[in-house]
Amino acid sequence: MPSFQQRKDVGDAHEQRVAEELNHRGWAVDAWGQGVLSEGVRCALRGTDSALRWAPDLIAAKGRELFMIDCKSRMTSRTTSRHAVEKAAVMAHLHLVAWTQLPVCYVFDNLDVLSPPDVLMAGYTGPRTVHGSGSPYYLVPTTRAFSFNEIFGRDQEGSAELTAA
Q: With a threshold of 0.90, does the pTM exceed it?
């Protein structure tokens, strides 16, 4: 039985899906990061430049292997076939990897997977837009991403083949 509890909004629905996919592959998954904080603390944290703003959403373990996972909902363009990740998140996650000595990865809606170094190496700076947060971000071609199965293994419970959300 998954230890991850279902939550309500779109980003949380993606987190739930990722947690379920990991559970099907034998991973234990827990919520982590801002998702475990109260609304008041999350709101205050969003108003800072603290790297804690970018704490990954999930932590997963299988045997002695651990991953911190940042679920990226609606961060892939179907038009340009590129994933977007905010530069501040990439920098915070590179520091987190150095501090914890644990891997961090991004999982997108289609279950593509990238790490902060992948984004830094394969990405390029996207144009500033008036849409969204307006924060600087990296764009990474989807062809540079790894498949969910490649990183986390195949589904052990025989559920349906992976499909994009």
A: no
